[in-house]
Amino acid sequence: MKVLEMKGIRKCFSGKEILRGVDLSCEEGEVFSIIGPSGSGKSTLLRIACFLEKADAGSMSYFGKRVFLAGLGAGDKEQEEAGRAELAQNMQKAKESLSLVFQNFNLFPHWTVLENIVNPMIHVQKKDRMIAREKGRELLGRMGLADKEKEYPFALSGGQKQRVAIARALALEPKILFFDEPTSALDPKLTGEILALIRSLKDSHMAMVIVTHEMQFAREISDRILFLSEGEVLCVGSPEEVFSSGNERLKNFLGGYTRERI
Length: 262
What we know:
By secondary structure, the chain is α/β, with parallel strands linked by helices. The chain contains nine helices and ten strands. Helix 3 (113-123) runs parallel beside helix 5 and helix 4 (129-142) crosses helix 5 (158-171).
């Protein structure tokens, strides 16, 4: 079953087209990675999938239910209103099924580590405070941060902040988890820790969509990989298919990645 399906997604900023008719789909339990040069539209595509940006054209569905369709409103007024209501209802359900881990953590500085995990469960999911705190502590233990629950974000290292952000995302029990370059703000040692943690999540059979610049990681963890360049999908397939592709832009991108690390 397709957890997420995006078709013909287009997005412009200040007259510049960032996404040019992008198609993407993610199956239940699939790990789907998005790679590509800086400025290729990867994070914009992720933000659209998470309802933080609105596409200018195209359609998007979660669990087979359409949540976005550009150009709605060309027909009968009653039909138009019914269509909008259905999209809004489907969108709300979709929002409750996803979580996003930001590249810069986005923790609330005035909340403790435990509060950053617990408060979204209480305010968004309306969970009982005691149950939420119990779950928050269980997740902190899983992240190796059981002794940090009373600390504030400023007292944590970058890797610890990212683990708190992952715990917060998992607390909402998403059916699909998005990562926007989860290691870009970390040094190499902490990068390894976070990548190992994300690898461990694969055993949960939760769908994951990961924007990453870590090519070896993408190759190891992904069921499928999409290569985005200048707002266009140039290659999508298994890691073996993508990394052996003859597409010139993809070969240049992977070659540049290798050279930068020699």
